[in-house]
Design brief:
By secondary structure, this protein is α/β, with parallel strands linked by helices. The chain has one domain: Alpha-Beta Barrel (TIM Barrel). It has 14 helices and eight strands. An eight-stranded parallel β-sheet has the order 1-8-7-6-5-4-3-2. Helix 9 packs across helix 10. The protein is globular, with a radius of gyration of 20 Å.
C-alpha cells in the first residue's frame, strides 16, 4: 500500500464516506476460550497474580490470537483497528504484577506510584506491549490493505487508567490523590513513544471517564510530538482521536463533564475526531451524540456498546448484529457520523453489519464554528 501522509489520506477518505472502526477486543478474545495457562504462556508461568483478565498481555503470549482478531475485523470492513493496548501502561499493569499495599493495611499514593514508574520490569513490559501490539496491528493493516486495495489504518489505543486525577478515594481527605498529574503524564508519554515506534497511524485517547486523565494523555502526545519534531528537525504529528464514555445525563463518568464541555476542553488539540464510545448502548447514547455533533468542529466518531450488559447473552450484551445495523443506519441517515464502530459486545459480525449500515450514507459535514 502507498505510504503517503496518513493525515491527508484520512481526511480525503472522511470527506467521501463514513469510515469504519473495529469492535471489542475483550469480547472477541473471550470467544477463543482461553484459560489462565494460555494467558500466561511460558514467559509469565510463575507470576503470582492471575493474568487471564489482562487482555493486553496476549500481544506477547498469544500474538496469533490478537493478530487473528485484527485480521477478522479488517476483513469485516474496518478501515481502522485499535491496538491491543487499552491498559498497556506501567500504572495499569501494576495491578497484575505488584502487590497491592491495601491488602496489608497500606494505601496507594504518589510515593507508591513513583516506585511503579521507576520499576524496570514494568517499564520494559509497557514498552514491549505497546510496541508489539502496534507492530502486529500494522502487519495486518498492511496485509489486508494490499489484498483489497483499500488502505487500512492502525489506531494506538490509549485507555483511561485505573486511577483518577479528578477525585479523591478518601472521604476524609478531599485533596488526596493516589497519583499526580506528572506521574500520569510520564506513563502516557512512555506508551505514546512505543505506539509510534511500532507503526501506528493515529493516537486514540479513548473511553474517557476522567477528563483530567485524558488531559494528561493529550499533553503527553503533544510533548512526544515536540520531541520527535526536534529530533527530526521537521514537524512531526499524527492524527488524534478523543472519545469519551458518558452516563445517562451525558456526563463523563467521574469528572461529570457534559459533552459540550468535553469539546471545549479538547478543541485546542484540533483532533481528527471527537466522539463517544462504550457507555450506554446506541439508543441511550443518541441524544448525547446529537449534542456533540452540533457543537464540535471536528469529525464525529461513535462506537457504542452492543446495548447494556446482560450476563445471559452470548457476548455479555443484548444487541445482535442486526440491531447494531438498525441503530447505525439511523445515526448515519441523521448525519451524525464520520467514523462508526462498536465497543463492548461487538464482534466481527457486528462490525460487518455496521459497515453495511453506513456504506451508502454520506458522512456528517463538519461545521465551521467560530
Amino acid at each position: 500500500m502507498p505510504q503517503d501522509d496518513p493525515t491527508a489520506d484520512l481526511n480525503r477518505s472522511l470527506s467521501e464516506r463514513i469510515l469504519v472502526l473495529d469492535g471489542a477486543m475483550g469480547t472477541t478474545i473471550r470467544s477463543y476460550g482461553l484459560n489462565e495457562t494460555d494467558a500466561r504462556g511460558t514467559r509469565f508461568a510463575d507470576t503470582d497474580k492471575d493474568l487471564l483478565n489482562n487482555g493486553d498481555i496476549l500481544s506477547l503470549t498469544r500474538p496469533d490470537i490478537i493478530g487473528d482478531i485484527h485480521k477478522r475485523f479488517y476483513e469485516a470492513g474496518s478501515d481502522i483497528c485499535e491496538t491491543n493496548t487499552f491498559s498497556a501502561t506501567g500504572i495499569a499493569q501494576s495491578e497484575f504484577f505488584v502487590e497491592d499495599p491495601r491488602e496489608t493495611g497500606g494505601r496507594k499514593d504518589p510515593e507508591f506510584f513513583q516506585k511503579i514508574l521507576e520499576n524496570p520490569f514494568l517499564n520494559d513490559l509497557a514498552w514491549e506491549m505497546n510496541y508489539e501490539s502496534s507492530r502486529l496491528c500494522r502487519e495486518w493493516a498492511d496485509n489486508i490493505g494490499s489484498d483489497t486495495g483499500i488502505r487500512r489504518y492502525v489506531a494506538g489505543a490509549i485507555g483511561p487508567l485505573t486511577v483518577s486525577l479528578t477525585n479523591s478515594p478518601d472521604a476524609n481527605d478531599s485533596g488526596f490523590r493516589v497519583v499526580t498529574f506528572d506521574q500520569v503524564l510520564e506513563a502516557y508519554k512512555h506508551q505514546v513513544r512505543a505506539l509510534i515506534e511500532g507503526g501506528c497511524d493515529i493516537l486514540m485517547v479513548e473511553t474517557i471517564f476522567d477528563s483530567l486523565n485524558a488531559k494528561a494523555a493529550v499533553v503527553a502526545i503533544r510533548e512526544v510530538f515536540d520531541e520527535y519534531s526536534l529530533a527530526r528537525t521537521k514537524p512531526y504529528e499524527l492524527p488524534v482521536i478523543v472519545s469519551a464514555a458518558v452516563g445517562l445525563g451525558g456526563e463523563t463518568m467521574i469528572s461529570a463533564q457534559k459533552v459540550e464541555a468535553l469539546w471545549n476542553a479538547f478543541a485546542h488539540v484540533k483532533p481528527l475526531a471527537i466522539g463517544l464510545n462504550c457507555s450506554l448502548g446506541p439508543d441511550l447514547m443518541r441524544p448525547h451524540l446529537e449534542e456533540l455533533s452540533n457543537v464540535a468542529a471536528a469529525h464525529i466518531s461513535c462506537y457504542p456498546n452492543a446495548g447494556l450488559p446482560n450476563p445471559l447473552a452470548p457476548t455479555g450484551f443484548d444487541l445482535e448484529p442486526k440491531h447494531m445495523f438498525d441503530y447505525m443506519t439511523d445515526f448515519a441517515k441523521a448525519g451524525l457520523l464520520n467514523l462508526a464502530g462498536g465497543c463492548c459486545g461487538n464482534t466481527p459480525d457486528h462490525v460487518a453489519a455496521i459497515a453495511k449500515a453506513v456504506a451508502h450514507h454520506a458522512p456528517r459535514e463538519v461545521p465551521v464554528i467560530g
